[in-house]
Amino acid sequence: MWTTIIMFVAIIAIFYFLIIRPQKKRDKETKAMLDAMKKGDKVVTIGGIHGTVVTVKEQTVVLKVDDNARLEFTKSAISTVLNKEGAKSNPAKKADKAAKDETKADAKSAEQAEPADNTVEFKAPEKQDK
Questions:
Q1: 37, 43 contact by CB (below 8 A)
Q2: Residue 80's beta-bridge partner residues?
Q3: Domain map (residue ranges) of the chain
Q4: Residues 6 or more apart from 47 whose CB is under 8 A from it?
Q5: What is the C-alpha to C-alpha distance for residues 91 and 87, in angstroms, rounded to an integer?
Q6: How many Cβ atoms sit within 10 Å of the Cβ of residue 63?
Q7: Cys-Cys link to 55, which of 62, 89, 99, 102 (CB 3.0-4.6 A)?
Q8: What's the pLDDT tens digit per position in 20-30?
Q9: What is the rounded CA–CA span in Å between residue 42 and residue 49?
Q10: Is residue 130's pLDDT more than 70?
């Protein structure tokens, strides 16, 4: 019976440290990011819309997405707050972006090393006599 109790406690501890604790940490960071959002910040919504914060209300945010277009979103729809320079404020996402940029640079250097031959030859169809 003791082995069953020990295994049960071990499984609960694993779930806590691998699932529950990291999720609480992410939620806390997201809440801090949304609370620190202010007028003039550049943001990206969960739908991928980029805009500049015009007004921050209690539950919503008004974004300027174009010269004459302003959209109102709930605060929970904001996925990322960008700095004035356009760099992401989340360091984990910065590392992901750096890795993607490095992959793109490797692909460009490979393309430059082997020039692509983009010529296509067309042949006129031959007439068939019946």
A1: yes
A2: 44
A3: 2-104
A4: 77
A5: 10
A6: 24
A7: 62
A8: 999 999 999 99
A9: 11
A10: no
pLDDT in tens, 21-72: 999 999 999 999 999 999 999 999 999 999 999 999 999 999 999 989 999 9
pLDDT in tens, 77-100: 999 998 754 445 454 455 455 555
Contact 73, 60 (CB under 8 A): yes
CA neighbor of 39 nearest in space, from 84, 97, 8, 4: 84
pTM above 0.70, yes or no: no
Residue 92 pairs in a beta bridge with: none
Measured distance CA(47)–CA(50) in Å, rounded? 9
- Tokens in use for 79? 């996925």
Could you write out the DSSP letters of every residue in 60-113? EEEEE-SSS-EEEEEGGGEEEEE-TTS-BS-HHHHHHHHHHHHHHHHHHHHHHH
Number of helices followed by number of strands (H, E) in the chain: 3, 5
**Please, are residues 94 and 88 in contact by the beta-carbon 8 Å criterion?**
yes
Among 117, 122, 36, 121, which Cα is nearest to 82's? 36
